[in-house]
């Protein structure tokens, strides 16, 4: 089939959500100017540069108590920092809990039963037992086409790696099976990897 998004797809569910998959999940922790903490997952997330290391995530909806965006972007606008927590398979239920439409007064760490730890380079909390966490300073927020679409870019200023996720000096994703978003309400995990060398001639 072929369709133009502006005309609709005619299917029971939007197939675009399943085309670009799997997508890594950025479990974004942020802190408002009032000191309140927030934690929410975003599947429009990725690393975008090596030097300096930089990441991005996109927020695509609004909340009644946050005007044109959601808690994460609103907090980052106020404080200029955020942390990206990597989600392991064992944390899937807690991650899903933090995706709920809770009011800005709700601390998702507490609501999901997660232990907090303090970031070292920024004033923000992170998920204490996350396989890895990237501490980030905001570089820019870009408004893109669409009513509530914002892309947040940050420079990584600190990296936490859980010791049991290191194997022979490498960060080993098979030790925690990272969670990825597929289409619709589907998820996947990474349990196996393989290696290919780049061609040299």
UniProtKB/TrEMBL annotation:
InterPro entries: Flavin_Rdtase-like_dom (IPR002563), Split_barrel_FMN-bd (IPR012349). GO terms for molecular function: FMN binding; oxidoreductase activity, acting on the CH-NH group of donors, NAD or NADP as acceptor. SUPFAM superfamilies: FMN-binding split barrel (SSF50475). It comes from the Bacteria. It holds the Pfam family Flavin_Reduct. Coiled coil: none annotated. Residues 18-173 form the Flavin reductase like domain. Transmembrane segments: none annotated. SMART domains: Flavin_Reduct. PANTHER family: BLR2425 PROTEIN, FLAVIN REDUCTASE LIKE DOMAIN-CONTAINING PROTEIN. This is Flavin reductase like domain protein. It comes from Pseudooctadecabacter jejudonensis.
